[in-house]
TrEMBL record:
<dbReference type="GO" id="GO:0016757">
    <property type="term" value="F:glycosyltransferase activity"/>
</dbReference>
<feature type="domain" description="O-GlcNAc transferase C-terminal">
    <location>
        <begin position="518"/>
        <end position="708"/>
    </location>
</feature>
<keyword id="KW-0328">Glycosyltransferase</keyword>
<dbReference type="Pfam" id="PF13844">
    <property type="entry name" value="Glyco_transf_41"/>
</dbReference>
<protein>
    <recommendedName>
        <fullName>O-GlcNAc transferase C-terminal domain-containing protein</fullName>
    </recommendedName>
</protein>
<keyword id="KW-0677">Repeat</keyword>
<comment type="pathway">
    <text>Protein modification; protein glycosylation.</text>
</comment>
<dbReference type="InterPro" id="IPR011990">
    <property type="entry name" value="TPR-like_helical_dom_sf"/>
</dbReference>
<keyword id="KW-0808">Transferase</keyword>
<keyword id="KW-0802">TPR repeat</keyword>
<dbReference type="InterPro" id="IPR029489">
    <property type="entry name" value="OGT/SEC/SPY_C"/>
</dbReference>
<dbReference type="InterPro" id="IPR051939">
    <property type="entry name" value="Glycosyltr_41/O-GlcNAc_trsf"/>
</dbReference>
Length: 723
């Protein structure tokens, strides 16, 4: 602490003090920021700037809400450039205190020189907890600022939206639409809500309405670009983001302009064009460009998880693509990364003084971090390891990223560990919370599933950082030290295709317990499937069905007209329609023999699999958790033996379980022949199904070898780190 004081407070000029208080806020050190800002406050000179935001923000984060509001309102009177940010701070403070009607009048009188836009008024109103006081504020704002009835409808809709009451927000916007006097702001809010709720066609219409009013409206263009991305219209989305970039010149819009890939391709050629342009743009994209910084870019453009769909492009080497992509992200986030490294990383100057964890100082602290610790494949892949690690050796923390979904699986996981941490959207505060755990190992289970998830590992908040098969390929991040991978994949990608050091782990992919998987027998009628058809399941996400796989489906459909191929529908109707149009052209026979099933509970999923005659494993990126979930109750799964982890789970699982003559093909013709054989030979099909069910016990299921081997690796890793 003494070192901190000498380095950061001695001999500072007023501008330097303000800037350093601002930096302390950015790294989540709010008490220190408040102390420094208050110590210099009386001697502040010059016009207000963004560094003045440090004091009200720090006071707010430290729980001094009324003081924060006071400072924020005083600042807002002196500068209009910070008004929106200051109102956001004040609104957050209001959510934590009870204010009276007289408080509202006094604040509005004090700020009479400030004019609140309808959006800003909505932000303040949303923070007021008392309904009567909120109504008084809106009445006063209407009389003072001359809001129209349309403005008031918009404000009320914004308040409902901010409180996550989506139906009410749409209902409150309805009168503006009926009057034919829909404002640009109302159109954008409607588009945003409809986009988030999956009504993409309507969202696109409202976004276009706003753009017709102002072709340079970056917010409306952002909404339109994101809707087009969700609809898998990658070319149109890139064009829209190029328009955004012309207006904002930020790096996120440029990344979107260059790297959006189709969520569901309309053809093999469409996918190839997208991938080739991705590679070309990546080669031409300099990470030395004059970026405005990721925080500023986030104010101007929507982030999209651009790297996620790379793995679905086919059997390609992902390492150089992901490394090049993250070099760009690292360059954009350099400032905030370096600041947080200094304060929170064990190798940072400030943290290195305070960080102490060594052999002989109790249990090994390990943290597992994700946004997907709920009923999700990522949790299913890792919960056996998390719950199975020896608590005499390890202290386990679960770290939920901002936006985590709480369900029974989420709660069950929390109850099984020593500590549970929830991160807010505040990046610096999140880094501080993780750093304060003083972890020996930070285990990222699924880097790359959400936009900008790769930035947090760049801080290096533990002595060692590791990952595993939550995403079955390299992360592309040099800051991840080790990739834990089962030895069953030893003949797949080698070390040259990983940025991390490969750690070969004994046993299966993890620990999976069939005792937690109840099976209720149901009929085909329950699933609205015909009882007289040969049911072949391919219950994978549509983006896993590579266009090359269409010809497989076509050949299989041609085997017999009784075949019905059961596909898992996407939640977006636009994606379903896009896939259907592709199949209709590329595989017309299969198109006539397709059936979609909607998302269902896990119990229904088990029951459906028990009714299917066969399952199909897609090529290039096959089944993972979906195979493990159903190997104990489902039919045989025909697979193509791949040479990447993402295409090899089914084939290597059969080999690990020592299935005799498993349905593993080495070519398309073999794949189709396996389907033909198992369709025409019911006795063989039943025998194979029973063999898989029986041999999966003790190999795929209820097998602790992976946990024990991982345990030994992590223990040795922690010990080596302190030698």
């Amino acid at each position: 602490m003494l070192r901190f004081s000498k380095m950061w407070t001695s001999g500072l000029s007023n501008p330097e003090a303000k800037e350093r208080a601002y930096i302390l806020c950015r790294v989540g050190e709010y008490r220190k920021a408040a102390t420094l800002a208050l110590s210099q406050r009386k001697s502040y000179t010059g016009p207000a700037n963004k560094y003045d935001m440090a004091l009200p923000l720090a006071l707010s984060k430290c729980g001094h809400y009324r003081a924060s509001i006071l400072v924020a309102t005083k600042l807002a009177r002196s500068t209009s450039t910070l008004q929106a940010d200051l109102i956001e701070i004040a609104s957050d403070c209001l959510k934590n205190i009870n204010i009276t009607s007289s408080d509202v009048i006094n604040i509005l009188d004090y700020c009479k020189s400030i004019r609140l836009s309808p959006g800003e008024a909505a932000s303040i109103a949303a923070g007021i907890r008392d309904q009567k006081v909120q109504s008084l504020f809106l009445d006063e704002a209407r009389s003072r600022y001359g809001y129209s009835s349309e403005d008031l409808n918009y404000i009320a809709a914004c308040v409902s939206y901010m409180k996550e009451d989506i139906p009410a927000a749409l209902r409150l916007l309805q009168p503006n639409q009926e009057n034919g006097r829909l404002s640009t702001a109302s159109a954008k809010l409607s588009a945003r809500i409809l986009s988030q709720t999956g009504h993409l066609y309507s969202a696109r219409r409202y976004a276009c309405f706003a753009i017709r009013s102002n072709r340079h409206d970056a917010e409306a263009l952002n909404i339109l670009g994101h809707v087009l991305y969700q609809e898998a219209k990658w070319k149109a989305a890139r064009k829209v983001y190029s328009l955004v970039h012309q207006i904002t010149a930020d790096e996120l819009s440029k990344l979107n302009m260059c790297f959006i890939l189709p969520r569901v391709a309309v053809s093999l050629n469409d996918l190839a064009n997208a991938f080739e342009s991705f590679k070309g743009n990546l080669a031409n994209f300099s990470d030395q460009e004059d970026f405005i910084g990721i925080e500023n870019a986030l104010r101007l453009s929507f982030p999209i998880c651009l790297s996620f769909y790379l793995a679905y492009q086919g059997s390609i080497n992902l390492k150089w693509l992901l490394e090049a992509y993250y070099r760009i992200i690292r360059s954009s986030a350099r400032k905030i990364v370096n600041e947080n490294i200094f304060f929170h990383s064990p190798c940072g100057k400030e943290r290195s003084i305070r960080f102490h964890h060594s052999k002989g100082h109790g249990k090994i602290r390990i943290g597992f971090i994700s946004r997907n610790f709920h009923q999700h494949s990522n949790l299913q892949a890792h919960q056996g390891l998390i719950k199975g690690l020896n608590r005499d050796i390890f202290e386990i923390s679960i770290i939920h990223r901002h936006g985590a979904i709480e369900d029974t699986a989420h709660i069950d996981l929390n109850e099984s560990v020593d500590k549970t941490i929830y991160l807010s959207a505040d990046f610096g505060a999140g880094c501080k919370r993780i750093a304060d755990l003083k972890l020996a190992v930070l285990f990222f289970t699924d880097i790359g599933m959400f936009p900008l998830d790769g930035i947090l590992p760049m801080i290096r908040l533990a002595t060692h950082q590791v990952t595993s098969w939550g995403l079955p390929h390299t992360t592309g991040l040099s800051e991840i030290d080790h990739y834990l991978r089962s030895k069953i994949f030893d003949d797949c990608e080698d070390q040259h295709e990983y940025s991390e050091s490969l750690a070969s782990i004994n046993g299966y992919l993890g620990y999976f317990d069939t005792a937690t998987s109840p099976l209720t027998v149901k009929t085909t009628d329950y699933f609205m499937l015909p009882p007289d058809r040969f049911l072949i399941g391919c219950l994978q996400s549509l983006h896993k069905l590579h266009p090359e796989f269409d010809s497989y489906l076509e050949e299989i459909a041609k085997l017999d007209e009784s075949i019905l191929i059961v596909i898992a529908a996407a939640e977006s109707n636009e994606l379903n329609q896009r896939f259907i149009r592709r199949i209709k052209t590329a595989a017309p026979t299969a198109y006539k023999q397709l059936c979609f099933v909607q998302k269902m509970t896990m119990q229904d999923y088990y029951s459906l699999n028990s009714l299917l005659d066969l399952n199909l494993d897609p090529i290039h990126y096959g089944a993972g958790i979906t195979f493990i979930e159903t190997a104990w109750c489902g039919p045989p799964c025909v697979t193509l033996r791949g040479n990447t982890v993402r295409s090899a789970v089914v084939s290597r699982s059969y080999e690990y379980a020592e299935i005799v003559d498993p349905p593993i093909a080495r070519s398309k013709s073999e794949y189709v022949n396996w389907v033909r054989l198992l369709m025409t030979n019911a006795k063989l099909r039943y025998k194979l199904k029973q063999e898989i069910h029986q041999k999966s016990k003790g190999t795929i299921y209820n097998n602790e070898e992976y946990v024990r081997s991982s345990e030994a690796f992590l223990q040795n890793l922690a010990i080596r780190g302190h030698e």
